[in-house]
Amino acid sequence: MGIKIMAVFGTRPEAIKMAPLIKALEKEKEFDTQVAVTAQHREMLDQVLRLFNIVPQYDLNIMRERQTLSDITTAAIDGLDRVFLKEKPNLVLVHGDTTTTFAAALVAFYHKIKVGHVEAGLRSFNKWFPYPEEINRKLTGVLADLHFAPTKRAKLNLLNEGVEEESIFVTGNTVIDAMSYTVKKDYTFREERLNRIDYKNKKVIVVTAHRRENWGAPLENICNAIKDIAKSYKEEVYFIYPVHMNPVVKNTAHKILGGFDNVLLLDPLETDEMHNLLARCYMVMTDSGGLQEEVPSLGKPVLVLRDVTERPEAKEAGTVKLVGTDYERIFKEAKLLIEDENEYKKMANAVNPYGDGKASVRIVGAIKYFFGLSKEKPEEYEGGG
């Protein structure tokens, strides 16, 4: 049967980043690879599973209307406890910082199963930003046996917390691997309105804003800044905002931004749609963590709509700029990139510190090394110092 590896995830961002790793593991005859999803996000997760042709062996389907963090945690723990008891995997792989990630690592620990943490070591050093992700990631790190750090900086964070160096592997980020599957030059959008946009002559700005810590006044500030940029640059700029399904986000976005000719509000896009839109746009404004990694690989500047980030490598490399949620700052920094070609090129041409498309291969090599199937520890990814 080989070594049984169970990949566990529950949201779309996790699925995107785990998909290329699952595909790489499935090619290895020494591994019996299984997938369990909690589906703490249902529809958005299913889109990614279809795109990468991944059929989970276990689907807990825990998502409930108006679910709280406690609801997600307890449902994931209860469901995964039964799965691990039945399957007894040799290694549980989790990704990043979601509630599913922490719950899976905790249940694996209860069953004395080894835990591999993909995208380990990111830190904002503020437990409330991002919330609850910073604490989910730190707690998972305490429970993990294998730490797949995307950058040297992430490795240093782990070392500073007392993690043994032998258990840390610097791999790059698997999201860069995923984009090699999705971005196509001759891509035609299923969302027909996206095919009618003049990407060559318009400065198309993609927006995503949905983080829990930005609900309320911060999200209103973001939307009001976008509204006034749209009004100031009616002929030059076109905004596309795939709006998160959460009613708090949806209501705010539609109330402030609805009805403008150069603002397109969409339902969330499927992964390949989003990646190909990012490849065609002028720049991105986002509070997403993942987009801070993905977009620079496409040569697009990113304005980060957050006060702190657990991804300082991008900020230091110059691929992203942290602008927070203050109306004046957002307006000023967007205006600069719209009007100043040199500032735009400086960010667009900066080197992405997050990966070279080989992260999954390195992680597979590290797992083989850990289980004694290979004598060679994989070479570390050199980026993101």
UniProtKB/TrEMBL annotation:
GO terms for molecular function: UDP-N-acetylglucosamine 2-epimerase activity. Its EC number is 5.1.3.14. Keywords: Isomerase. Coiled coil: none annotated. InterPro entries: UDP_GlcNAc_Epimerase_2_dom (IPR003331), WecB-like (IPR029767). Pfam families: Epimerase_2 (PF02350). Residues 23-368 form the UDP-N-acetylglucosamine 2-epimerase domain. Belongs to the UDP-N-acetylglucosamine 2-epimerase family. This is UDP-N-acetylglucosamine 2-epimerase (non-hydrolyzing). It comes from Caldanaerobacter subterraneus subsp. tengcongensis (strain DSM 15242 / JCM 11007 / NBRC 100824 / MB4).
